[in-house]
Amino acid sequence: MKTLLKQTLAVSVLSTMLAGTAFAAPAEAPPAFVKKVADSLIARLKADHAKLQNNPALVKTIVRQNLDPYVDAQAFTRIVMGTYATNQYSSAAQRAQFEKNFRETLIENYGTAFAKFSNQSYTMRPYKATNSKNPVVTIDFLHNGEKIPVSFQLADKGSQWKIRNINVSGIDLGLQFRNQFAANVKRNGGNIDKAIATFKPDAEAAVEKKK
């Protein structure tokens, strides 16, 4: 009887935990999350603008502190590696190494771009709520009188949203990076380790490709 009672209690507690996990959802609406991230990053860039030009380490620190925590690196990694993210082509250790390298390279890329930041601002487009697990929020960055649309595809991570992909001026960066990585695998004769070690996602080349 005691054993049955313990088993019933254990199942009850486990069910409660699983239910709590299943129904957990971010407290913020998607637009509020994106605005918070953008405002925090822009405020920091403006505050330290005079120091950014000659201090690349500071730029990386700003990106790492104000953007990196909100990126779903695992999801982004799966998107970019594509079919190479499966067990047929890569191991868990290789995917972890790719994620580490990819994250650092993105910080380098974004750092270079943000070092040129002066007094750019942005406006948010009206948000259309959907039932999708990956809502998209679009903002228009204003740069030298030009509007540059940037769409953030989000992932529901339970306690908060995270950015899983980015679209700039109609260019899906995840897809473009996937094409770049696939080309790099071919250049390295299908050697995944070499492809991972030498892969440098080029956001500027991806965006320029459309022009």
From TrEMBL:
<feature type="signal peptide">
    <location>
        <begin position="1"/>
        <end position="24"/>
    </location>
</feature>
<protein>
    <submittedName>
        <fullName>ABC transporter substrate-binding protein</fullName>
    </submittedName>
</protein>
<keyword id="KW-0732">Signal</keyword>
<dbReference type="InterPro" id="IPR008869">
    <property type="entry name" value="MlaC/ttg2D"/>
</dbReference>
<dbReference type="InterPro" id="IPR042245">
    <property type="entry name" value="Tgt2/MlaC_sf"/>
</dbReference>
<dbReference type="Pfam" id="PF05494">
    <property type="entry name" value="MlaC"/>
</dbReference>
